[in-house]
Amino acid sequence: MKRYEFSLETVLRARRAQESVARADLLRANINAAAAQAAEGRRRLHYEDVIATDGPSFMVRRELSELAAGALIGARGALAEARAAVTTAMKGYVEAARSVSVLEKLDERQSQEHAIAVQREANNMVDELVTSRYGRQHRQGGPRAQAER
User: Fold this and answer.
1) What mean pLDDT, rounded, does the chain reach?
2) What is the CATH number of the domain that holds 98?
């Protein structure tokens, strides 16, 4: 019997490559989200400093606080987008990993079926060998008759 070959090996390799790309995308999205989180924290601290500080005049304080608030709002929007990108990347990775897992399970099952078929074929060969030997021995008078000759 031929040695085992998974018929969908090329598909499995392609799926593993897709899984690697999805993992890299997820890593990049997490790095971007961490950077956005840090930026939002810096903007929040800056805004809190601006509103706590007395400026030279009311108009200057108001202008500075509006600018700091706008920067904080922008940072929060960027953080929300980064978190959404992480969610999307996570879904992509989970789907890619699932497709790899399905193919790996199929490969494992087919490999086991092949091993069983090989064992069955080997057992059949042994049975045929034993049966033919037994038949030859009894056609020739059996093992005792051969010993007496």
Assistant:
1) 90
2) 1.10.287
DSSP secondary structure of 78-117: HHHHHHHHHHHHHHHHHHHHHHHHHHHHHHHHHHHHHHHH
Model confidence at 74, in pLDDT bands (50, 70, 90)? Answer: very high
Q: pTM, whole model, 2 decimals? A: 0.72
Residue 1 lies in a domain: no
In a domain, 2, yes or no: no
Report percent pLDDT > 70 for the chain: 93
The answer to whether residue 52 is domain-embedded is yes
Contact (Cβ atoms closer than 8 angstroms) between residue 72 and residue 47:
yes
Q: For residue 126, what are its two tokens?
A: 């042994």
